[in-house]
Amino acid sequence: MKRSGFTLIEMLVVVAIIGLLSSTILVGLSDARRRARDARRFADIRQIQNGLENLYSTSRAYPKSEDLYDLIKELPTDPQGGRYGYIQVNSNAYMLGACLENTRPPEIMSYSRPDAASFDISPQGSTQEPPTQCTCESQNAYCVNVGL
How confident is the model at residue 130 (pLDDT cuts 50, 70, 90)? Predict the structure, then answer.
């Protein structure tokens, strides 16, 4: 009588191969997820800028740093939690930024000035990594400004 089926060794080899393939795919997906979250951050910053300009056109001043999320209720938040960095420099100038998970691509311009290190745009209220702290001079930061 002939028995058909797989041996234990054959099953273990198949399971090991499937495990290796799935771990490779998961590593590739995590990088794609980081890039997708960074792309969302770029888009969110532009959306917040539009909201700030609408607010400025009616009140002729940008909101104070602590008032931004209170005045504009539906502002986007960082994909990993927390509020985007916003600093009102004066009534006619502000700094807005996001900390990225990857190094900022060279084709994307970011605010750069000798005092950029003083603008901490870390996501407020976030406990997620990376990063919990970055400034506008960081390679993993995207900053925009108006009036500076």
Answer: low
